[in-house]
Design a protein that fits this description.
Elements: H1 2-17, H2 22-33, H3 38-43, H4 53-90, H5 109-123, E1 127-128, E2 134-136, H6 137-140, E3 165-167, H7 172-182, E4 187-196, E5 208-218, H8 223-238, E6 244-251, E7 254-263, E8 280-289, H9 291-296, E9 305-312, H10 313-321, H11 334-337
Parallel strand pairs: 1-4
Antiparallel strand pairs: 2-3, 4-5, 5-9, 6-7, 7-8, 8-9
Helix pairs in contact: 1-4, 2-4, 5-10
Length: 343
Amino acid sequence: MKERLEALRSEALTELETVDSPQQLNDLRVKYLGKKGALTEILRGMGSLSAEERPIIGQVGNDVRAAIESVIETKQAAFVASETEARLAAETIDVTLPGKKPEAGAIHPLNKVVQEIEDIFVGLGYTVAEGPEVETDYYNFEALNLPKDHPARDMQDSFYITDEILMRTQTSPVQVRTMKAAQGKPIKVICPGKVYRRDDDDATHSFQFNQIEGLVIGPNIRMSDLKGTLLQFVQLMFGKQAQIRLRPSFFPFTEPSAEVDVTCSQCGGDGCRMCKHTGWLEILGCGMVHPRVLEMGGYDPNEVSGFAFGMGVERIALLKYGIDDIRHFYTNDLRFLSQFVRM
């Protein structure tokens, strides 16, 4: 048995000399020193030895194991050192290179426009009000002079959750809630927020968009007050050269109602492809608050009057920045958004 152990030692050390990879080294370790390895197989025969021979053969076995393990450890250390050296060479850092500056973020263009609009109207004495995006049918339609059988409901294809609960189609419900909370006192408020309508996404439409509505109620509020307010807003938003025109329209919650156009920012009113050679671009809707809406809001239409207006934030942003597709605001393309870092 002693001769077999010595032969095993010689064989193992010879094979270990030719090892050239960590995987090959591990395979030889298992082959000679594993639970089913060659050394274990030989030592299992010690049971047939005499009491005098066992210590001698046991010592020889330990010597063989120690010799093989020593070579394996040396080889393993050499492989680790070589791997570390190769990694350091591949990952060398040139400390003389200039550092990378962190990219500065920017306010999203839609949020930027919302903030600018809010600043303008706060400067005109308005307060900002918010309300829930999941609304009741009453606040979204009925309190705005749109009973359940009203044909104008077809103008807004809505996301209903139940028969009485829906995603708001406009921020007008915030105006109704503000009127009821005011308990007959004068109001001067704007209501920004997200609204939802069942619409196909394209260059000018989205199922979710941002809207800002305004409401003024008090004694002797006139249509001329509305026009003056909107003209001042447009000139603060687009420049002193901007002008507006009002065209008769229909909204169930205002009477009379009007669509508001602004002089084309592209051609200054001379006519171009953007404005279809009219010199004007539609920007928002407005009108005098309907007496029925005043009554449902807790006001006496014989004592007070009011005006309201509503605009799409995306529409304002498209005109302000000369953007041709509303989808740019939602695709999170850094090439597009980075243009607004310094604006």
